[in-house]
């Protein structure tokens, strides 16, 4: 199972967990497994079926936008990081 690390803003939707495990051989499969256990995460990550443009996803520290997106291969020992984009300032 891959390790999925959650940013603090996503943790309430996953029972407060900092990281969880999810199964799948692609990012799509890993996310779908994650949503099975934590359905509220889907509204934050894929509200319309596509990845939100306000969330960055990394597999082993590589941005999936520069890999194969949702079809990025994820191995059992890989780490997926879900990191919402933050904005602010003046």
From TrEMBL:
User: Do you know which SUPFAM superfamilies this protein is assigned to?
Assistant: MoaD/ThiS
Family annotation (InterPro entries):
Beta-grasp_dom_sf (IPR012675), Mopterin_synth/thiamin_S_b (IPR016155), Sulfur_Carrier/Prot_Modifier (IPR052045), ThiS/MoaD-like (IPR003749)
Residues folding into a coiled coil are none
Q: What is this protein called?
A: Thiamine S protein
């Amino acid at each position: 199972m891959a390790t999925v690390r959650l940013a603090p803003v996503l943790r309430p939707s996953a029972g407060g967990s900092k990281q969880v495990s999810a199964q799948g051989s692609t990012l799509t499969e890993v996310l779908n497994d994650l949503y099975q256990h934590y359905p509220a995460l889907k509204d934050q990550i894929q509200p319309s079926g596509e990845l939100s443009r306000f969330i960055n996803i990394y597999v082993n520290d590589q941005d999936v936008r520069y890999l194969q997106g949702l079809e990025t291969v994820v191995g059992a020992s890989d780490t997926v990081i879900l990191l919402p984009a933050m904005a602010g300032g003046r």
